[in-house]
Amino acid sequence: MRVPLDYSKPRGKQIKIALIRLPATGRKIGSVVLNFGGPGASGLDQLRANPAIVSPALRRRFDVVSFDPRGVGRSAPVRCLGTLGMDAYLAADNTPDDKREVASAKQWSKALARSCAANSGKDLLRHVGTAEAARDLDVMRSALGDARLTYLGWSYGTYLGARYADLFPRRIRAMVLDGAEDPRQTQSEFARSQAQGFETAMNAFLRDCFKRADCPFTEHTLPAAHKRIRALLRRADRAPLRNTMDGRQVTEAIADTGITAALYSTQLWKFLRGALATAFRGDGTNLLALSDYYNQRRPDGTYSNMAMAHLAITCVDHPEAACPHWPVKGRRFTRKITAAGSPPIVVVGTTRDPATPYALARSLAAQLQHGVLLTKDGDGHTAYGGGSSCVERQVDRYLITARAPARRACHASPKT
Questions:
Q1: Do residues 137 and 55 both lie within one domain?
Q2: What CA–CA distance (Å, rounded) separates 191 from 176?
Q3: Catalytic amino acids?
Q4: Which structural domain, as residue segments, surrounds residue 64?
Q5: Is residue 50 located within the same domain as residue 120?
Q6: How far is CA 278 from the centre of its chain?
Q7: Fewest beta carbons within 10 Å, which of 36, 327, 342, 369?
Q8: Among the residues of 9-128, which ranges form H helices?
Q9: d(C-alpha 313, C-alpha 311), whole Å
Q10: By the 8 A CB rule, do 173 and 402 touch?
């Protein structure tokens, strides 16, 4: 799909947006458009890898469509560092302790900005924000032949969906925002919310770990376990952990990313138990593997452009974020979204979501003129496709009929 790079110049330079479609298996209503989050996640790769994330009920009634948003994957991708540069950037000290380390972090920030400007161009970097992506979404709706949009977005996909609702509230047929961000928050406010969310998720992981035979903690109390993890990260900050996979160093940043990555899903908790067990003995190989999974480092050592696209989109959407040397100026957007005149919009929140804490879902649902909150009482990041038949049943019914469920809670058990 071709769209303007700059919507204020619709006859100017065009860019291509890559889409993927899984045809309906039965009597089709239209298309349901998916965004898997990020920002920076490739919708093409995600849908190819996991088509079963959409239920058979939705497959029967909709063409399932996803896409790489502008700047991502195959859609005018942002390009910055090469493989060795990415390895070094992701391992760099993210908690500078003295003037030398602060200076090093500043050098990295400048070098990264120069690299992105040189390899992507300022014109592209200026126009990868969510405001443009929301307009791309409306072009997509029209190109698919749908009078109104049916949409399911996870995580950052909720922010994209909310921005679309802000611009085009009457062009929505049905919209589900799962694992919501709060568009009123600044990036620093969102970071504080996330820190609280990850602490809640870590405590849930630890309580579960204490019940397991392979739990690597000798003292089964939250304070003692947190203390041991902090000690591990300080150790990696002083001297990287060893790694038997390749020649890279497992620094504090890599170890922290590996731990964080495993808190996104309860399915990864068993891997985190094993990774911590070996890390406590000085071997960071398994934490490095979890970090690579999170950063989308491929077996051949190359990376997807997710991390760089994430940075570029964030610096345009939230110029108040940590982008002091970014080569273009963003435009801050932090305001209440009501989507006045829209049909009911379903916001899904998970009570112990690490990355988009439940309070943000409550806030977004309350802002929307016709917001309906659906709660999953459980763990992990986002709910639909995560094993709760209750959430899946409620969301499917709403997307198919466009009639919103009553505000209710779904429990964590797959059999609810």
A1: yes
A2: 23
A3: 155, 353, 381
A4: 2-75+128-184+335-411
A5: no
A6: 28
A7: 369
A8: 43-49, 56-61, 83-91, 99-120, 122-126
A9: 6
A10: yes
Q: Of 190, 116, 104, whose CA–CA distance to 155 is shortest? A: 190
Q: Is 346 helix (H, G, I), strand (E, B) or coil?
A: strand
Residue closest to 15 by CA, chosen among 129, 168, 153, 128: 128
Q: Is the separation of the CB atoms in 373 and 364 below 8 Å?
A: no
Q: Judge whether 324 lies within some domain.
A: no
As a whole number of angstroms, the distance between CA 261 and CA 291 comes to 7
Burial (CB count within 10 angstroms: exposed 0-12, middle 13-18, buried 19+), residue 119:
middle
Report the 10 Å Cβ neighbour count for 275. Answer: 26
Which residue pairs from 403-406 have beta carbons closer than 8 angstroms and sit at least 24 positions apart in sequence? 403/344, 404/343, 404/344, 404/345, 404/346, 404/370, 404/372, 405/346, 405/372, 405/374, 406/372
Amino acid occupying residue 206: L
Burial of 25 per CB tally in 10 Å (0-12, 13-18, 19+): middle
The pLDDT > 70 percentage for the chain reads 98
Give me the count of residues in the chain. Answer: 416
In-domain check, residue 322:
no
Q: What's 37's domain CATH number?
A: 3.40.50.1820
- Total count of domains within the chain: 3
Residues 6+ apart with CB under 8 A from 173: 30, 146, 147, 148, 149, 150, 343, 402
Mean of pLDDT over the chain: 94
Query: pLDDT category, 351, cuts 50, 70, 90?
Result: very high
For 21-49, what is each residue's pLDDT tens digit? Answer: 999 999 999 999 999 999 999 999 999 99
Indicate whether 164 and 241 sit together in one domain: no
Whether the Cβ atoms of residue 151 and residue 160 lie closer than 8 Å to each other: no
Between the CA of residue 290 and those of 94, 120, 198, 286, 395, what are the distances in Å?
18, 28, 16, 6, 31
On the 0-12 / 13-18 / 19+ scale of CB atoms within 10 A, 416 is: middle
